[in-house]
Amino acid sequence: MQNNRPDKPPPSWLSRVTHPLSQRLSNFFRRRPKGRSELIEVLQDAEGEHLIDADTAGMMEGALLVSELKVRDIMIPRSQMIFIEVEQSPQDFLPAIIESAHSRFPVLDSKHEKVIGTLLAKDLLPLAIDPKAPFTIRDVLRAPVFVPESKRLNILLREFRLSRNHLAIVIDEYGEIAGLVSIEDVIEQIVGEIDDEHDVDDEEFIRQHRGYRFTVKARTPLENFNEVFGTTFPDNQYNTIGGFIIHQFGRVPQRGDKLDYGGLNFKVLRADRRRVQVLRVIRSHPAAARDDG
After folding, report:
1. Are the beta carbons of 156 and 71 closer than 8 angstroms?
2. Which of 22, 145, 158, 232 is deepest in the core (most CB within 10 A)?
3. How far apart are CA 3 and CA 76, in angstroms?
4. How far, in Å, CA of 286 to CA of 265, rounded?
5. pLDDT in tens, 89-127
């Protein structure tokens, strides 16, 4: 008896291409890691086999590591906080707000011991229309949010989302102000720098942001770095700032690793297992920053 049913169509070109990839992914992730560190190794191996790209692997790794980090690991320390005194007039605090380009600011008492509230930059918009309009800072303050240094970042992120707060004051074990942390700081641990400060032009080694914050390519000649930052790192031993930083760590640092050295705070913005690519550099004392063009 003749079978009139049509033959099964041959696989399309797309299925012929995607099936081997899906099979490779399935075989690769069939390995069952026994802990978070082994899972990260699996992700790194998958990146090395070009099964997932570097950005995807970085975000997945960041999402895993964020549950291990605590607020103290990423907070802006008190010495680097940009804040407003509650008795200041707009003429006094507006220059700092404009220069920093932040959207939220803690407001402290005149002795800098107590947080009165949080000021949102958008609440200052009426002053853009009429700079002489009556303005009392206490009338627009939001209640401050406090978190301990020991809080895990995944918990903090959940609280930020539920409360719709974007900024929290960090307190130490004695209830004193230790620093501040924002929702952006937490998210950056997963996705990397959000404000595109690591997108330095091909011909630009060092880019200055917000007065005292810089993005630096790791391949910046150390001689150039010393000239811009007024440092005296030994350029006869290391050719680039990346090589110098690797020596200080004693290993190839990974994204998010930090180092305080020579009056500067270094943070690795982009790196792979072989090299550092982009650094964020902050002067330890912003008031000492100079305009480097």
Report:
1. yes
2. 145
3. 75
4. 11
5. 888 888 888 877 788 999 999 888 899 999 998 888 888
Supply the DSSP string of 187-209, one letter for each residue: HHHHH--SS-TT---TT-SEEEE
> Token digits for 131?
């700079």
Superfamily of structural domain 71-191: CBS-domain (3.10.580.10)
Give strand pairing partners of 217.
278
Query: Distance of CA 126 to CAs 91, 100, 131, 135, 249, Å?
Result: 14, 19, 8, 9, 49
Q: What is the total residue count of the chain?
A: 293
Model pTM above 0.70: no
Element (H, E) at 107: strand 104-108
Burial class (CB in 10 A: 0-12, 13-18, 19+), 169: buried
Segments of 109-205 assigned E as strands: 115-120, 146-148, 167-171, 177-182
> 206-288, what's its fold?
3.30.465
Say which residues have a Cβ less than 8 Å from residue 198's Cβ, sequence separation at least 6. Answer: 192, 215, 269, 270, 278, 280
Neighbour order of strands in the sheet with 115-120? 84-85, 104-108, 115-120
**How far apart, in Å, are the Cα atoms of 227 and each of 232, 235, 241?**
9, 11, 12
Domain boundaries, the chain: 24-65, 71-191, 206-288
Kindly report, residue by residue over 142-153, the tens digit of the pLDDT: 999 999 999 999
CA distances from residue 170 to 74, 145, 147, 151 in whole angstroms, order as listed? 11, 9, 5, 10
Least confident range from 44-58, 215-229, 267-281: namely: 44-58
